[in-house]
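Quick one: structure for this chain?
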Amino acid sequence: MKTLFRTRAGRWLSAAALLALAAPAMASTLNQNVSWTIDRAGTSTKYRVVAYGDSIFAGYNGSISNAARYSAPTVDAEYLSARWNADIESIRRAKSGAVARDVYENKIVAERSYMQAATTRVVSFEMCGNDGLQARSAFKSQTGTCDYSGLDAAVNSCKTYVSAAMDYINTNAHANTRLKVISNLYYPGYNADNVQSSCRDASTGQTVNMRDRFLPAIAKMNYWMCEYARQKGFQCADSFAQYMGADYDSNGDGQIDADALRYVSGESEASYINRTAVTLRATLRDANTKFVSSSSSFDYIQSDDTHPTYTGGTVSAGLWGGSTGSGAPRYSSFSNGRSPIWNQYGHERMGWALSVYQPATP
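Got it. Here's what it folds into:
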């Protein structure tokens, strides 16, 4: 899972593949499409769940040829298979490295046929992570006077295409679709960003703490993902809360940290940002150390400090095309709606967060 592309390439990439990767479009984005069916014993009824997104839903692991078999959407499908006692076809149409506009135009719109099938029951998506990562990288490279416009542009692009994506899915998903859900952003590199900038603020003449700048920007993106979901008939899986807050009450306010950080339906943008980035900021933790109790933690982030950890092996997905396969569910049933490893890996946690909105029947 933690292998870097750079170390693998020298061993098996052909000269032709290296030349292809040298092209700007290929170097920055990579289609990683997967179809995996949870093949449940004793049933031949099959429903489809469709997930659109970037490297997160793709199950990116540093490889250009494979991805996690059980990335969050397929984990979600496994829960759904148990709930409905049916085979579930998990369709992941993802593009690693894609910004929100790219996910919208080249996945959701261009590949709308996948959600138009009559067997479709769930459509999910995630986006905006690369908008944020690119803006963060650009800001980190600044010298002289700080320019915050790139962060603002990332937030505005996220809002634009999240809204457009929901409208498009509402119009184009098959009428049999029972659930539409978005997953918002966790904050990769939370600890690493706790450093001063190389640029200086125009007003104070001082360097700025990068995390102080990035956290409110992520909070704005996350607010509008969940708020647009409320307005447009989607559910919002709050990955920020699931990844960044502990599963116990660390500050004695009477709430489990992860629950206290969740978006509250109908709250204002100002309220959400103040609550998550100011009032409860002391409870935020880097997801490399996700505390599931006061004395136990798991690593939700791979060694690239960006992508979620996973278990369950890999499937072909990337430069040489996607893959189609099937397999028995890893667990035949779930106690209290949770697998034994629901909180031990990043993708398992995100998949569970998606699953809590599943309808009781297809």
